[in-house]
Amino acid sequence: GENVEQHPSTLSVQEGDSAVIKCTYSDSASNYFPWYKQELGKRPQLIIDIRSNVGEKKDQRIAVTLNKTAKHFSLHITETQPEDSAVYFCAASSAKGGTSYGKLTFGQGTILTVHP
Amino acid sequence: EAGVVQSPRYKIIEKKQPVAFWCNPISGHNTLYWYLQNLGQGPELLIRYENEEAVDDSQLPKDRFSAERLKGVDSTLKIQPAELGDSAVYLCASSFGTREQFFGPGTRLTVL
């Protein structure tokens, strides 16, 4: 089945710095890559996603890049703020075929801490 | 628009007891998922429904876990009997087809 690896497991930055989290996946049929933010004790919330027909997507301070050839995708957060502190999960899924069809396979998560 | 609703939010039981979790998806979402999230890890899919049909239950431990979605709307996940290792957060999510999944707040299960 699909396997998603996420790095780093913890990331500590100063407020205003950028943060980058990277994920790799194994199933070449995967074509949908969402990122979720989960605050302590709360539900995972979708913050941005990308489909395989685009290489980059931005939403204000958040961007995601995708390299289908290398099977990796990354989350970029610029001008980090203390409220960005949370656990971030990447995931991969396929809308058609493949072992990841219709289901999200999550990475192990990255604990991001933004220091004021 | 109401989000995914789950109950109870917390449950503490003795091992070998049964337990059930309930989920009501976002209105109009035909696909419903149950995930297991252990502490410090990402969610892992247990079962996926498209309407009333369980289309992927390969990760569901069928000796003790069962699920149903009788009318294609809300769903129940049951564990009988519960074991110590079942302590985790059980998340329900819903989507329209294979589009974006929205998660509920989860049920935190503690088995003593």
Give me some keywords for this one.
heterodimer, A: 116 residues, mainly beta, 6-stranded mixed beta sheet, 5-stranded antiparallel beta sheet, 53% strand, B: 112 residues, 7-stranded mixed beta sheet, 4-stranded antiparallel beta sheet, 11 strands, 49% strand, globular
Short structural description:
The complex is a heterodimer of chains A (116) and B (112). With 116 residues, chain A is mainly beta. Helices cover 0% and strands 53% of the residues of chain A.
Question: Could you characterize the architecture of this molecule?
Answer:
The complex is a heterodimer of chains A (116) and B (112). Helix content of chain A is 0%, strand content 53%. Chain A has 116 residues and is an all-beta fold. In chain A, strands 2, 4, 5, 9, 10 and 11 form a six-stranded mixed β-sheet that branches. The N and C termini of chain A lie far apart (41 Å). The model of chain A has no long low-confidence stretch (mean pLDDT 93). In chain B, strands 2, 4, 5, 6, 9, 10 and 11 form a seven-stranded mixed β-sheet that branches. A four-stranded antiparallel β-sheet of chain B has the order 1-3-8-7, with no helix packed on it. Chain B is an all-beta fold and 112 residues long. Chain B contains no helices and eleven strands. Chain B is 0% helix and 49% strand. The chains are: A mainly beta (116), B mainly beta (112). Chain A binds chain B through residues 6, 32, 34, 36, 42-46, 49, 89, 91, 93, 95, 101-109, and chain B through 4, 31, 33, 40-45, 48, 50, 55-56, 91, 98, 100-106.
Percent helix of chain B: under 10%
**In total, how many beta strands of chain B?**
11
Low-pLDDT runs of 5+ residues of chain A are none
Q: What is the percentage of strand-forming residues of chain A?
A: over 45%
For the report, how would you describe the main beta sheet of chain A?
A: 6 strands, mixed
The count of DSSP E runs of length 2 or more, i.e. the number of strands of chain A, is 11
General form of chain A: globular
Count the helices of chain A. How many? 0
**Span between N and C termini of chain B?**
37 Å
Mean of all residue-level pLDDT scores of chain A:
93
**Number of separate helices of chain B:** 0
